[in-house]
Design a protein that fits this description.
The protein contains six helices and no strands. By secondary structure, the protein is mostly helical. It is elongated.
């Protein structure tokens, strides 16, 4: 379980178990933890249910980290394209951001991160103007 969670020492592992157990109890709406845990343990359900819960949480954490990394790469690519636009416009980056936002509004695509379509359109328009 510690390896799945990407933990390196026992202190982190026990912190994770404490956190997961507190969340597990809250999600199962347990008001009196000790009697409930004792009953689950006697029925043989605690280990299986809690282990499954921990594995699911670890899997979700991995997905969240991967999603965050994908978003970080997307923002890096966006920043790189904005820098290209700023260079093409020979203007500071904040002005390039305003130009991209204006183009996004014109195209009806105001969401962030800016769609690659918007950035590519701005770059193409700038290249056409420069030609």
């Amino acid at each position: 379980m510690a390896v799945e969670a990407g933990l390196e020492d026992d202190e982190d592992f026990f912190f994770m178990v404490d956190k997961y157990l507190a969340d597990f109890l809250a999600e199962n709406n347990v008001k009196a933890a000790i009697p409930w845990l004792r009953a689950c343990d006697e029925a043989g359900d605690l280990g299986r249910n809690f282990t499954t819960y921990c594995q699911e949480r670890n899997a979700q954490n991995v997905r969240d980290r991967e999603s965050a990394e994908t978003m970080r790469r997307s923002w890096e690519q966006t920043d790189q394209k904005i820098a290209e636009i700023a260079k093409a416009l020979d203007c500071p980056v904040p002005e390039a951001y305003r130009a991209v936002r204006a183009e996004a509004r014109n195209m009806g695509m105001e969401h962030k991160p800016y769609a690659s379509v918007v950035l590519d359109s701005v770059l193409m328009n700038l290249q056409r103007e420069a030609s």
